[in-house]
Amino acid sequence: KEKIEKVYAYLKRFHLSDSLYLIGSLNAATMKYGFGKTHRSGIPLEILDYISNNFPSKDARIALMNKMNKLARHLLLSKSNDYKSIILQTESKEFRSAADFVFDLFAVESKDALRAYQVVTQIQFPFFDNINTLFARAHLLFTVIPNDIPCLTYDLSSAMIKACQMTVFDFMATGYILGIMSNGILSYKFNSVPEGLKNVVTKKNILNFIKESSGMPKRYKEMVRGKEKWKIIEPDNDLYKIDPLYQMPLLKVENSDLSHFSWTLS
To answer: Per-residue DSSP letters for 36-104?
Structure first.
């Protein structure tokens, strides 16, 4: 616990949303369409230069993504907030130190088999999401296959409509389009939606998707530590619990020096 407290004491000085924007942009550039190719559209030039100068290989980019995912997690679990003055920058000493401090937390091997499995899961989970085929695979799993099973009594699509006023297909299509149109922040232009999805990815569906897939940084802490103990460091949960960003990828921005976005997308 003492080691985690020292890391959080270091991280609490940084502006949360603007630092998460940096992390989201790095991940978008290195992994949006696979680790072998840099995604450049909408990515700040200094981030592209940083990646090309320091992470030329696929293995190096995978290592960078692992560090960034852990850095985002522990920034959110620290007392970092949107009213701090220091923003993480790629070429700064603070950025390198923060990434290294956080990554070192995971260097200690767990003697608990479940915890060890959770560490591996945190590393491997993003690799499953090849965005080029993600929507097709999700559509097959949650729409096509359930409809082809005659004995299936549970209607997932009806449950989704009741819960968030969207069908399964609408929810997946909206999230997919917002994901490929965003680079660390949620941004969208309705005239950029593919022609075949314009009746699906509507303003109403986007707002419903945001409602179901977003939250404040406090909620992130609650999902890791529990609602009653969200302020209390719990080493096992802080280190190993499945990351809430898989369920809640959008985080509300309270205050930003960049001043042009409302949600970070991690």
So the answer is: TS---TT--HHHHHHHHHH--SHHHHHHHHHHHHHHHHHHHHTT-BTT-SB---TTSHHHHHHHHHHHH
